[in-house]
């Protein structure tokens, strides 16, 4: 009888030693697999995702997470320099399903790569609400994430952010400060204040030097204020947009900007949807409801500066004011562009190269109504 008891105790001890003590103490449940994700229910559990053994796991929220009264400094999830060789062990490369819950009343500050997540790779975020989040830093500042690693894919669906503030004293500010390649579906941004010197947008500042493509479907920006400055005396220089600062290639479908002010008086390449895009397709998208855009040069209701721009069934009903290159749809529209079934309203003011649809236009541009 005693021998049996001793053997049972020994086996139990061996089994306990062979199983990593991860989810039991760190989360409310789950094993981190796609079928049984880790369950997050507290601020401390959310912070725990940042430990290296969890960065490639799957997570769900099981309730709202309110940071009111949380007395610790937030450490953005994911680390290492994003310009170094891509290493999936140091960026968040899992999935995060908010299950419709809200993360609220959170303050995040730092230098670069500031956000709930600092650095992400091939990651997915969905079914999440963000409310009253402030993010402040120098470069790559976001509410949800500072930036994504080069040559990685980001997918974001059914995410909203409201009553929040993003301030970069340098460059790249947005829900995601900077991104490489991404797809956004059903995104709602309301009552945001976003500021930075260059590459600023409510959704993302972009990152033209290392980006490849971005798509927006059913995205809305409403009652927000985007500005090209650092919150102090320094004034920004270029690529300021409602959704996107700058990107190489973009597809925007069935999306809208409403009652939003984009104040970039001394900046170039400023637009209601994007500051500058190299290869842009916009379909069934519009800006209106008392929106206003001010810039120095290259200002447009939808895009400030675009090469190879294609507009179809779009309209812009907003006031636009700049010095040179001012247009209802685009301030400057490059070669081989197409405008179909699109129109503009609102007051357009400038000193040189001013047009109802386009301020300055390149070669081989076709328009049809």
Describe this structure in words.
This protein is mainly beta. The chain has a single domain (37-368), classed as Pectate Lyase C-like (3 Solenoid), CATH 2.160.20.110. It has three helices and 33 strands. It has helices spanning 2-18, 23-26, 43-48; strands at 38-40, 58-61, 65-66, 95-97, 102-109, 112-114, 117-120, 123-137, 139-148, 153-168, 171-178, 181-195, 198-200, 204-206, 213-222, 225-227, 238-241, 244-253, 256-258, 261-271, 274-283, 286-300, 303-306, 309-312, 315-321, 324-327, 330-333, 338-340, 343-345, 348-349, 352-355, 358-361, 366-368. Strands 12-15-19-22-20-16 form a six-stranded parallel beta barrel. Helix 3 links the parallel strand 1 and strand 2. It is elongated and about 65 Å long. The N and C termini lie far apart (92 Å). The model is unreliable at 1-22 (pLDDT under 50).
What brief labels describe this structure?
33 strands, 369 residues, disordered N terminus, 3 helices, Pectate Lyase C-like, single chain, six-stranded parallel β-barrel, 56% strand, mainly beta
Gyration radius (Cα, Å) is 23 Å
Question: Runs with pLDDT <50, length 5+?
Answer: 1-22
Q: Given the structure, what is the number of helices?
A: 3
Which class of secondary structure composition applies to the elements?
mainly beta
**Sheet having the most strands:** 6 strands, parallel, barrel
Helix share, percent: under 10%
Shape: elongated
Named at the architecture level, the CATH assignment is: 3 Solenoid
The overall average pLDDT, rounded, is: 87
Q: What is the count of structural domains?
A: 1
Strand content: over 45%
**Major β-sheet strand ordering:** 12-15-19-22-20-16
The CATH first-level class comes to Mainly Beta
Q: What's the end-to-end separation, in Å?
A: 92 Å
- What name does the CATH topology carry? Pectate Lyase C-like
